[in-house]
Amino acid sequence: MELRKTYFADERKDDLHEIGQPRPRSDALGHVTGKTAFFADRSFPGMLHLKMVRSPHHHARIRSIDTSAAQKHPGVVRILTAKDVPHNLYTILILIQVGPEDEHVLAEDKVRWKGEAVVAVLAETERAAQEAAAKVEVDYEVLDPVLSIDAALAPGAPIVNEHHGRNYYLYDSGEARKVRFGDVEAGFAAADHILEQSYASAPIEHAPTETTGCIVVPEGSGRFTCYTNTQAMFFTLDNTSIILQMPGQQLHMVGGTVGGGFGGKVDVIVEPIAILGAKLTGRPVSFVYSREEEMQISSPRAAEKLVIKDGVMKDGRIVARHVKAYIDAGAYSRHSPYGAQKSAAHFPGPYTIPNVWVDSHCVYTNRTPSSAMRGFGVTIGDFALEVQMDKLARLIGMDPLEFRFVNAYRDGDMKAHRQPTEGAALVECMQEAARAANWPIDERFMAMSSRTREGL
Amino acid sequence: MAIRHGRGVAAINYPTGMNLGGDPTQALVHSTPTGNFMVSLSSVDLGQGMKQIMAQICAETIGVPTERVIVDTADTDTGPHCMGTFASRGTHRAGNAVIQAAREARQVMLEVAAEALEVDAGDLETDGTGNIQVKGAPSKSISIFDTALIAHFKLGRSISGRGMFLVPRSYPEAATGAMKPSTCYAHACTVADVEVDDETGEVTVLSVKNVFEIGRALNPKMVEQQLVGGSWMGISHALYETTEPYYPAREHGPTDFNEYLMPGPGDLAKTEVIVLERPAADGPYGAKGPGEMCANPQIPAIANAIFDAVGVRIDTLPITPERILRALKADGAAAHRGR
Amino acid sequence: MAKVPVQFTLNGSEKAEFVESGATLLDVLRDKIGDTSPKAGCRQGTCGSCSVIVDGELRLSCLTLAETCEGASIVTTAGLAEGGVLHPLQRAFMDAFATQCGFCTPGMIMAAKALLDRNPDPSRDEVVEAIAGNICRCTGYEPIIEAVLSAARSNSISAA
Ligand code: FES
Ligand code: FES
Predict the structure, then answer these.
(1) DSSP assignment of B70-117
(2) Fewest beta carbons within 10 Å, which of A160, B14, B56, C127?
(3) Complex-level ipTM
(4) Structural domain boundaries in chain A
């Protein structure tokens, strides 16, 4: 890595002692000696293991659940179903008043995705829990699933989630989070060229080397200590408090070093049910995702679909950008309504475009609920935007890098979501990239600055 | 049939923080009787090195070496509230809270030292190695060790401070979308060089040259860790990863690391990382959040490089050999018809 | 469940345990003996985080039955530092900033040790091959490869 100190040197004072120094990491010694304590590096006498019975169907009504055979399996201590969970219907963002509650901790009347948790089995060993889980009998009436964004939004599509009553999240702005800036139609009318293109992505997994999980210990004080690898301690505590209808002071969340998160450990999934298990059995409980669960059950990055329509002038100026974004939330909201909103604010990317129109939708399907991941609401949008930029440049016969200089935002430019640009540095990044890669660009672009519109 | 070379570029920006219901993080700092400093937080270290960075930020602000700072975090009994580690917010939000707490603690420390040295607190400075001295007269000094002892045992003062960083909640305007979902923006530009085998559709990423502007590299080696690892993840995202290779079909989902594809140590692109620093006005020592954005620009840069190499656009992620071959075939058929 | 006795040495000290027939070495090390340096990243043999050295051979402890280790000599990352002095690999991983979350680190170090024990002066390709069964999601592998190569260099310097 190289630090290029020549850029913005006048905005920086290099008079610091500790900051800017490549100090060794204080946790490295623990890592290389195997002493760093991850949450699962603890075991407690009498600890039980929790395994989930999961839906084999994308969409089905639950007619009945029979746990009697599982109950008799050697080593089984307790079996939990929906009626054991005090406040079974929840949604993570209710803490900040983003509702409605739309997801069951354990499925009640319906399952809405293949893999949804239906019954929790607590047993002396992981193996006993696994074997007993296989003996739980659930009688399903299979329903038509909705598996894609297009299917979800088609007229007459089955409703994925009755708590929303429609297959998309309803914002105060309607079926999408909207950004309206300038007049796109006027922009298109004035444009020399118009290009409309569609982009898409499949879900991906965070794949941290340490899977999601927690260990809960009931303490003599009546409190519960939960060793967890959540990325958000109080989010987890406060949601657990709501779900279990348990005063917050009875809960103690302990984290530590987490074996990678990448956004995959911000949903509150394992802790509430494990704490409930510990409460009802009076014993420590471990609930750790298998690798298979981590890959197919834990929330992935959403699949997305984007349609971008741009109006561009022969001289390279983009005069209008129209974006329709669809985020496949799967069966439940989790963090997706916010992801779609963040996505709306991110368009039109780091460019100053006078006319911008954005509709960003959060769509429900009978799929594994998606949620936050590194680049939440942005990564796929950036893929689409930057491929679109390449296409636009070629369309008007301009060098793709030079084309970006013409449009790059500068300090003081108003963004589409009405925030003034501050601290811009796109121009300088591109100048340095041109140098590093020997990408030939005209001198006038090398003389430009993010601090001024001069030279444009 | 040939191996074709292509080059592509992409430029991006990335917001710091996730303003849902307001975006707060708090921190507490206090000294031990012998002048070490304890930072209490509830933020989570995911491996990015939050504990180390918070120690350096606290040390810089108080004016002591980093080894004198201990960070206790991720415990809801001892740490004040933090929204969590996500949205590139950890260093920025917690860092600002630590600075505020450390400033308050430093002020008390200087007042105690001033009393001991019988001077004005305003005339004192730290030397960065563990002493407090009179500005312009460094021989008149007292160690932080002694200062802490005096505070604890003679003056009965608590060398401590409280820190809070809150981005107030932003409610988007329904009609226009006016909103403030985040604060300062990091930037990046990546140039990717690829080879595409037009017979197999296989892509080899030869090199990625990444330029990242991150406000300030608080610890350059740790910044490098994140940026290099992120760049690898971006390449992986572009070409390999998915839990559902035939989305929206639910079949063929990988359940282990043999099926979930990622580049291994033998598949690495030559990775160059260059860092620019334009300090953010609201960042801790100018830092922005680089943790997420560093994995983004490689994806479109590679997609564009593939087009440059073989003349087909793959607008669906991941860009698998199968998709490339199908596109080449369709392109060939189109060219044939055109002839 | 039937229990079987098993004795082996772990990092040089004798261990004797009654284990369930079918128990993995990983579970016995972590839950019975309390050596949590091998990590359970997948329990499927696909991530390498559970790697240990059994009689000089690199093994995935999640796929190794404990009862097959009778009389074996087992080495884990927890046993590498001798008398508080770090193994050159441990030093090199620290110096090269080759750990982020650290979850893959003990397994990586085992894989690298198994390589250096049989080939003290490996090429980059040999290092790559040696760690190819170990997943790291944080580092992008480059610093890990660097660390192993630099440990090999420092080894040959100290041996000279
Ligand atoms: S835990 Fe053994 S290979 Fe993953
Ligand atoms: S350092 Fe996190 S998995 Fe390797």
Answers:
(1) EEE-SBTTTSPPB--S-TT-IIIIIHHHHHHHHHHHHHHHHHHHHHHH
(2) C127
(3) 0.97
(4) 48-142+207-296, 177-204+300-425
